[in-house]
Amino acid sequence: MTDHPSLQPYVDAWTQSMEAISELVTPLAEGEWNRRTECPGWSVRDVVSHIIGLECELLGDPRPIHTLPRDIYHVRDETSRHMEVQVDVRRHHTGPEMTSEFEYTFIRRSRQLRNEKRGPEAEINTVVPFGPRKVPLERLLMTRAFDVWVHEQDLRRALNTPGNLDSAGAHVARDVLLAGLPKVVGKDAGAPPNSAVVFDVSGPVEFMRTVRVDANGKASVGGSPSLGPEATLSLDWETYLRLATGRVRAEAVADRVKTEGDAELATAILTHFSVTP
């Protein structure tokens, strides 16, 4: 356990998802490692490689010396290029090699987190996904809990093994994704001043939130209901997750989303729904 109780929920959520991923991939046949996920260009092996690589960097391991092929279509900027190195260097690893490295990395990182003495506000050097700068330890741990849970769900969908949609990581993910809603509604979708948009989410993680845009065009999200919203979007939790993390386009899950009110605004919101890099 860390010395600071406020950090422990993120460590616990991260641990639960890492254990779940281990259980998912350990029994896989070699060919199953090549199954496509909803992460553009990434297989099951690639998703696990990504997790291993980020955790190794947080452990202070040197980055691989590796030149990426020029024809990787989903590498579009420096952030994705940085992440892809850790993925591409493992593309020819076997299943046993992957599971062994994952388990070893998990053990090392768990030990590091158990011995963590720094407080929530301690500034930590990091690159992905924040860029080359320092971030508070609490935010870093929250992001890792979010990231591994989202990738756990990527693996579950690819392997047709649903589960843990209501785990501790799911609730961390809900809070992270909700924090991005004001930008989606107010800036990207262009909701008019003095308007409100309601999101009614059902399923394992159930919630209703209202994004309000004030007279100056500034948007904020809250739990109080709106009696006359400009638009209402109703969808299940897994669909919300897939849209908000850019795994699917709105037209691919149109049958799972119900909209009321301003149809043009609702379409704009769904078009810009992704809040992850």
TrEMBL record:
Single annotated GO MF: isomerase activity
Ranges for domain Mycothiol-dependent maleylpyruvate isomerase metal-binding: 15-156
Q: Which residues form the MDMPI C-terminal domain?
A: 171-266
The UniProt keywords, alphabetically, are: Isomerase
Q: Which Pfam families match?
A: MDMPI_C, MDMPI_N
Q: Look up the coiled coil feature and give its residue ranges.
A: none
- Please identify the protein, giving its name as recorded: Maleylpyruvate isomerase family mycothiol-dependent enzyme
Q: Please name the source species.
A: Streptomyces axinellae
